[in-house]
Amino acid sequence: MDRLLLIASTFCFLFGFAYTMHALGARVYRPSRLNFFALLAGFGLQTAFLYVRGERVGRCPLTSIFEVLIFLAWAMVLFYLLIGPAYRLSLLGLFTSPLVFLLQIGALLGLKDLPTRTKIPPNAWMELHAAISVVAYGAFALACVAGVMYLAQERQLKTHHIHSFFYHLPPIRDLAVANRRLIVTGFMLLTVGIFAGLMIGNLQSHAVKIAWSIGVWLLYGGIFALSKGHRLSPRRAAWMSVGAFTAVLLTLSGITFIEDAVSY
Amino acid sequence: MEIVCFGLSHHTAPVELRERFAIPETHAGEVATRLKAAPGVQEAVVVSTCNRVEFYIAADDHRAGVAAVQEFLAERIGDADAEHFFQHPTAASIRHLFRVAGGLDSMILGETEILGQVKKAYAAAAEAGATSKHLNKLFQRAFNVAKEVRTKTNITRGAVSVGSVAVELAERIFGRLASCKVMILGAGETSELTAGALHSRGVRSIFVANRSYDRAAALAAKMSGTALHFEDWPHQFRDVDILIGSTSAPHHVLTAEQLIPVMRTRADRPLFCIDLAVPRDIDPAVNDLDGVYLYDIDSLQKIADDSMNVRRQELVVCEEMIERHAQEFGQWLASGWTGAPQGFAPAVSGGLKS
């Protein structure tokens, strides 16, 4: 039942992505409500999946990499729905759809999903840590998307090679502001998440993951501090948000593997 | 019943002739009513713009329609130079109206102003009681076709003049321009046009610096801006979002070295530099600085040319679209005017209002 909800939501993101790609290919792309509603429907189905899964496992559904990826995809769409329309960043949906689709299809096809009701009693700090941290990574993911859009637009403006796609990108100043705000939001949330993680106790058994999390916190904290003091140009902030999130994605699976190996 | 299009346009007649035949907007309904009263004429619409004067007539036969217009012109103007006029039979008239409404027959390919002018002309004739089912359906269909051409192709895509390209780029960089500050260095004609285009899109804060203060004051007054002595522009420059250079200075007025310390204080605010001067006012190296976007006259013109090329490429698709609609409408006419024409969507009331 819950997987069906997830599959349906994946189709929504695929539809939004395919529709936009088709429109771009035909060179008559205009931000459409169809893409927005596809994302909205996908978000509704994701939420339903997480609710049903949470009931099934008896806690916040962050018990496996599979669930973490779905939660991350959910957080990304949540941020898009919150900031996209507000900042006239409708095309953010175009870049959000493929990322969310790839995350979900990757999770569905490539990862084991064996939900089991855990016998360990739920720990409020643990659940807060997991949920807030994943939402923080959702903000970082969307900052990365805004960064990619900024760099694409900046390149066209600098080289004077204006593609028809350019006319549908949000204003570059808005993208710079969105990128900075998402990094700030993500950093604040991650700070809360790490604090909650430290409150769980039994730190030695999660030493690798804690070290990694603090590393990510320092990385984004550095970007946050530099952009806060306006010592970081929007272009560098965009590059750093893309680079930092890529590093997080690339190291996440490795860290999980090491953590599992150490725990055995 | 046949539909006749008779008239002249920028393709067939010079402006000296077009202005002689132009019919003021306030008289268009009256002229249409008069034409309708001619023998054999059932309905009439007069489309008169700076680029064309065209009479659309629904008449019992082609000759009656042409004769009515010729008689009117002879009475009104006197000797009408026949070689500058065109006349189309029914099928070609339908196609011609669809092309005109879609902006395909305009001097600037794909311009959208013409659709509003055609709508006004039709509204004037309809209000004067000079139209009935034939021209009503024809014009309604023309508005739908024009809308389809504009939304389903790139015929209106991109700006095709230096001024409009500058405005479009500014909107891509800043979004809404109302809060932007513009500084013009040198009160030349092109800079005035560009600043005027920005002003019309909402820019409220404009500074004009010129070696001759009087000229700066005159240009500033036109756009409710502020005139500056030329030596003072660097002091006001720090808060400027858009800089337009068009002085006749033989050297760069703004260099990268001057700009580096300024950009450090601007945080997330980009700077859009438009260099319209030859020799150039702004050192090309400023384009390498983060947050600075420099466009000279050639790069703006190239973007305008590229947009026009895109529009020309779209022409084939638009013509196919129009041909299909014209044939459908022609078939509906030939079928004896029964029912609604194929593919007809009655969306005209909204169009007329707009």
Task: Tell me the Rg of chain A in angstroms.
Answer: 19 Å
Please give the domain count of chain B. 2
**Poorly predicted sequence stretches spanning 5 or more consecutive residues of chain B:** 344-354
Question: Unreliable runs of chain A, pLDDT <50, ≥5 residues?
Answer: none
Strand content of chain A: under 5%
Strand order of the largest sheet of chain B: 7-6-5-8-9-10
Taking the alpha carbons of the first and last residues of chain B, their distance comes to: 30 Å
Mean of all residue-level pLDDT scores of chain B: 88
Strand content of chain B: 15-25%
The overall strand count of chain B is 10
User: Total helix count of chain B?
Assistant: 13
What portion of residues of chain A is helical? Answer: over 70%
- The CATH topology of the largest domain in chain B is what? Beta Polymerase, domain 2
Q: What is the terminal separation of chain A in angstroms?
A: 33 Å
Order of helices and strands of chain A: HHHHHHHH
Work out the oligomeric state of the chains in this entry: heterodimer
CATH superfamily of the largest domain in chain B: Glutamyl-tRNA reductase, N-terminal domain
Any overview of this molecule?
- The complex is a heterodimer of chains A (about 260) and B (about 350).
- Chain A folds into 2 domains: about 120 residues; about 140 residues, no CATH class.
- The model of chain A has no long low-confidence stretch (mean pLDDT about 80).
- With about 260 residues, chain A is an all-alpha fold.
- Chain B is an alpha/beta fold.
- Chain B has 2 domains: about 150 residues, Glutamyl-tRNA reductase, N-terminal domain (Beta Polymerase, domain 2), CATH 3.30.460; about 140 residues, NAD(P)-binding Rossmann-like Domain (Rossmann fold).
- Helix content of chain B is about 50%, strand content about 15%.
- Chain B has a 6-stranded parallel β-sheet with strand order 7-6-5-8-9-10. In chain B, strands 2-3-1-4 form a 4-stranded antiparallel β-sheet.
- In chain B, helix 2 crosses helix 5 and helix 5 runs antiparallel to helix 6.
- The longest helix of chain B has about 40 residues.
- At the A-B interface, helix 5, helix 6 and helix 8 of A face helix 7 and helix 12 of B.
